[in-house]
From TrEMBL:
Domain Glycosyl-hydrolase 97 N-terminal per the UniProt entry, residue ranges: 18-255
Keyword Calcium carried by entry: yes
Cofactor: Ca(2+)
Gene3D superfamilies in the cross-refs: 2.70.98.10, Aldolase class I, Golgi alpha-mannosidase II
Protein name: Alpha-glucosidase
InterPro entries the UniProt entry points to: Aldolase_TIM, GH, GH-type_carb-bd, GH97_C, GH97_catalytic, GH97_N, Glyco_hydro_b, Glycosyl_hydrolase_97
Molecular function terms, GO-annotated: carbohydrate binding; hydrolase activity, acting on glycosyl bonds
Native organism taxonomy: Bacteria, Pseudomonadati, Bacteroidota, Flavobacteriia, Flavobacteriales
Keyword Calcium tagged: yes
Ranges where the Glycosyl-hydrolase 97 catalytic domain occurs: 278-422
Assigned keywords, A-Z: Calcium, Glycosidase, Hydrolase
Domain Glycosyl-hydrolase 97 C-terminal oligomerisation: 524-621
Subunit structure, interactors included: Monomer.
Amino acid sequence: MGLALIFFNCKKPKQLSITSPDGLIEVVLDQTDKGLGYNLYDGGKDIILNSGISILPDLQVEVLDTEINEVRKTWNPVWGQFSEIEDHYKELEVSLNYEGVPVTLLVRTYNDGVAFRFKADEIPAGAKPSFFIEYGLPDTSNLYSPAGEGQPFGPVALADLGKTQPNGKKQKIKMPLVVAHQESKFLSLLESDLISAPGFDLINFNYDDQRNKLVSKNGFESDERSLTTPWRVILLEDRMGDLLTNTVPLNVAAPNQIENTSWIKPGKTLWDWRVHGLQAKDGFTYGIDNESYFRFIDFASKNGIEYFLIDDAWYTHVEPGEITMSDKLDLDKVAAYAKEKGVSLILYYDRRQGNYGDDALFPYYKSLGVKGIKYGFMGANVPFTRDAIRMSAESNLLIDFHDGPVPFTGVTRTYPNAITREFCHAQQDSRRAFTPKAFIRMALINAIQGPLDMNNGVFDITSVNAGEREKGPKKLNSLRTTVTAEAARTLIVFSGLVCIPDAPEAYAEKQDLFEFIKEMPVGKWDETKILHAKMDGYISTARRHGEEWFIGSVHNEGGTLDITLDFLNDDQEYTITFYEDTEETDSTTNPEAYQVRTATVMKDAVVQAKMVSGGGHCMWIRPESKK
């Protein structure tokens, strides 16, 4: 690990400024009669202007002193999109006086973003801290926002945000916001390291009609009088897809708090929930029973799938200190069988069915010999979710949050047991299917905040569309996709736990296509690139593990993406396996038609990834000497 520190000092300036290490991004602070403000420039172009920032909005502020440091170091995530991350920034430390209350403002500038954080040792009783920041964007800026379990909305012009919608309400805005800026820049507005900011709630965006500005706030409620805010982050990129690999949110997050991380293993998991009621070709019907689960475990063991996730049917009743097991299966026998086969179990927990008490819940799960918990219906409760992450780590349990959880951006650095979360419309959730357009939107918007559990990877699409599953979409023929798109989606959406939702037979019958998922080393990536990205159009993602590359692409309307393999090594021949739509593939009428072929390529070869509407394309590339 390398580390460099450079110190500067200025005394009581009227204007404060700091640039990024490459000198292109600049933040200028101004102290006025109305308080503290900032302006953000990139390459001399106006990005955000005349915007207020405060932690005690009701008090006047005075700048006392400043100091600038430059830091350059590297660190290694436990798992992630990169095996090594450079953390190179300049930091402006501003000493402030809020009518006798000393506060420190930290402003960090990276080459691809900026971040703000306040700290205070003691806030007087009666004071009402609130991390307030404005975003003075041009009115022509177009915004995109997540929409819970629905398709993300946008583009919405900033000037239209304050207008009342047809339902009589104003548009609800959530992080991470994506902004298409008039200066041909793409921004994302979000926060990071909320887990290290006790007392603060989730970031709240709204539009200030009087100021004609987008604003955000974090309220503060705590008996403690010291405070540290989350980092408020603004990412800046020339290409929309690069927002997904921007490391600023991870760099500002607190370092790993788990001393021994050897038990934290990202991977793939089979899942029973979407298979209930399906009759296999041999006449077996999947349900909540030992034999069904043995089938999942056998397939997982044979194909190197690390986990099997059992949903909420394994128990029937919860009371404080007691969980009543379902008589439909013998969980001890299933757990013993999984252990024998080298497969780890993850068990769902639904808080709506009762309260076991989290102090006892996680040790209880550990006593069952399982490796993780999928926590459902906890709500967007910040203190509760923070405690759940910490307590699950203390019991050496992975945790996957269901249904609209708190997006603790950066938490995978601080608590890498927080393996994924359903901060999206998971496929077929609420018994409905999302469209190819919705997938691309979530992959380009929701995924900026961190890993997603989206449950992609349906191979028996015909069965789902025919309504042959108890938990399939209520509307028949509503899942429009192709099997190659489903395979590609498992790579495109980054997660520490890739949950594939189909029956073992569905994958076994297409074993040559399933090879792409089987060989994919989830969460153990050395490098990630977004090769192509267009909102509502397409996305193409390349991930490297060692000398092997996995590339997945999907296309909403159908078309061809030219993928230049300029990232391969010089003078090395590679074997490339293609998993493709065919001329006969149709995402509505013939979704399971595909082809698998191999070829030899070298650096700078151009692959034409041809996809049907709603279709996909996958590649597995490895040095030719490797099998």
